[in-house]
Amino acid sequence: MTAVATTSGGLYARQIRARTAALLAAAAALCLLLAADLITGPSGMSLADLNTALWAGPAGEDRAAAAILWQIRLPQSIMAALVGACLGLAGLMMQTILNNPLASPFTLGFSAAAGFGAALSILIGGLWGLPQWLQTPLAAFAMTLAAAALIYLIARLKGAAPEVLVLAGIAVLFFFQSLQSLVQFMASPEVLQQIVFWLFGSLLKASWTSVQVCGAILLVCLPLVLRDAWNLTALRMGDGNATSLGLDVNRLRRRSFLLVAALTAGAVCFTGTIGFVGLIAPHIARAAVGEDHRFALPTAALMGAVILVAASVIGKLISPGAVIPVGIITAIAGIPMLMAVILTLKPVGTR
Amino acid sequence: MTLTANLPAVFKGRSQILHPTEIVVPAGQVLGVIGPNGAGKSTLLRSLAGIDRLHADWNGVPLPRDQIGYMPQGFQMNARLSVLEAVLLGKREALGWRMAPGDLEAASNVLLDLGLSHLEDRSMDRLSGGQQQMVLVAQRLLRAPRLLVLDEPTSALDIHHQLVILRHLKTYTQERPATTIMALHDLTLAGRFCDSLLVLKDGKALAFGPPGDVMSRPCIAECWNVAVELMQAKDGCPVIVPHEHGFGRKGA
Predict the structure, then answer these.
(1) Counting one residue from A and one from B, how many pairs have CB atoms under 8 Å apart?
(2) Residue from A294, A219, A252, A232 nearest B98 by CA
(3) A3/B contact by beta carbon, under 8 A
(4) By the 8 A CB rule, do A31 and A304 touch?
(5) pTM
C-alpha cells in the first residue's frame, strides 16, 4: 500500500515539475521576446547597443539611443507585456467562471464600453482642463467599470449563473456598441479617424504613466486572483459539485467578475481593444499545464504577455515605417494559433 | 451516536414537493431512499445535506458543514484535471499553495481502496461517465465525513463497480462510524446493502424500516405502480424480478 502511494506521489511530483518547467519556459520566452522587441524598430539597434543603453539609464551619454530606448521602446514593450498578462489572466478567469471556452475578457461587452468611453471623450474634447491623453483612458476606464457595475447588479438580483451573466453581458455589449456607433456617426471625419485609431488597439499610446497604472492594477489584482486558485479549480468540477464542497459559487463568480473588469479596464484604457489575446492565451495555458489554476493562472498571464510582445515584434517587422497596430496583428494571427492549439497540444503529465 | 434530521416542507412554486420528514439513523448504518421518479428523493437529500440550511444533528449537536459529504446527481465533467487532483479537491478548504504530502497520500489511498489507482494520472475529461462517478465518490470519501449523502452514486456503474462502491461505502460507514444516506433505483441492490429503507412517494414517506419489512408486493405496487415477483435469496435478502407486462395495472 505504501509502495503504491509512494509511486503515485512520484507521479504527481513529476507532473508538478513538468508544469513548473512549462511556466519557466514561458517566462524565458517572454524575456527573449522582450529583448527582440527592444531591438526592432524604425531605427535599428543591435543587442550590444541595447545592453549599453539599458545600463546607461535614461540619462545615458548617447542621447539618441537613450531617448529611443527609454522614452519610446521600453514603455511600449513593458506595456505590451502588462496588457497581455492582464488580458490572459482575465480571459482564463472568464472562461472558468462562465464555463465556456469561447469566453474572453470582451465577451461581456467590456471592450464596447471602453470604446464608447474613449469615443465620447475624443468627440467632446478636453473637459475640466484635463489633457486628452489622460482624459480618454479615464473615460474608457470609467465606462468599463460602469458596464461591469450594470452586469454585477443584475447578477446580484438574479444570481450569478453563467447564463445570467452572458445574457446581461450581451445586452450591455449591444447597448454600448450602438452608443459607440452613434458617437462615430456624429463625429467629423478628423475626429472619426482618431476614434478609429483608438479602437484599433495600438501600443503607440504607451507611456511610463500607462505602464505604472496598468502595472499597479495587475499587481493589486494578481494576489487576489491567485488566492482563489483552488476555488476556481473546484468550479471546474461543475456548480453542483463545487457547492457540495462548501464553495459559494455565486460569490466566487461575482468576485472574479469584478477582478476581470478591473484587469480588462486597466489593459484596454490606454491601448484600446486588443482582441484574441484573452481568448487564446487561456487555451494555450490549459493545454500546456492543465486546469490546476495554481499553474493555469500564471501560465495564462505569461502566455498573454508572450503573444502580445510577439505581435508587437511582428508588427514592427512587417512595415518598419508605419508600425501596424498590434490589435490587428493579434486578430489576424489569432485564429490559426487557436486552431493549432486546439488540434495539437495536450496537458503535460496526463494521459 | 444517532443522526437526527427534521426536514421541513419544501415547495416549488405552489406545489409541495416534500412534506415534513423526520429521519433518525444510528451511526454505522446505511439508509436507502427509494421511490419513483419525481418522488422528492433529490430534494430530501439536498435538504439533508444542508446546502441551503442545516437540519441534521448528532445526538442533538448540530453537524459541522465539513462533516457532511454530499454528492449531487448528474455530472459530466470536461475539466482538464488529473483524477488525483479531482479527488484532492475533496479537501478544498484545507488546500494551500503548497500541497501537503499527507493530503496527496490520503487521496492516493482512497483511489487504491476503490480500485482506481490505474486512473490516477488520467485527465477527467477522458473518463467515461461511470469512471467520473467513482472519482466523485472518492472525492467525498477524502473528506472523511460523518454524514454521507449520495444521490444515486451507482447510476452509471456496471454490476462489478456497483458492488465495489457499495461494499466500500458500507465498510466506511461501519468503521468511521458514519451515517450514509443514499438514493438508489435498483431495489435489489438497495435491499442488499442498506440497513433500512425509506420509501418516498409524492414527497411523503410511505414506509420506513428494514428492507425485508418494507419491500412487499403491495408496497411496491402502490409506490411504482408495477407488478413484480418478490423472491428471497438464500440469506433472506429480498430480490425483485419484474414482470414483462407488469406496469400500469395497480396491484396486478
Answers:
(1) 104
(2) A294
(3) no
(4) no
(5) 0.90
B112–A4: do the CB atoms touch at under 8 Å? yes
- Contact: B80, A350; criterion CB under 8 Å: yes
pLDDT per residue as tens, chain A (351 positions): 344 444 556 778 888 899 999 999 999 999 999 999 998 887 777 888 888 888 888 887 788 888 888 888 999 999 999 999 999 999 999 999 998 888 888 888 888 899 899 899 888 877 776 777 778 888 899 999 999 999 989 888 888 788 888 899 999 999 999 999 999 898 888 889 888 888 888 888 888 999 999 999 999 999 999 999 999 999 999 888 998 888 999 999 999 999 999 999 999 888 888 888 999 999 999 988 999 999 999 999 999 999 999 999 988 888 777 778 888 888 888 778 777 776 765 555 555
Nearest-neighbour CA in chain B from A102: distance (Å) = 14
Q: How many CB atoms lie within 10 A of CB A91?
A: 31
Which amino acid is it at A24? L
- Decide: B222 and B39 in contact? Cβ < 8 Å: no
- Chain B contacts of A290, Cβ < 8 Å? 80-82, 85, 123
Interatomic CA distance for residues B51 and B68, integer angstroms: 10
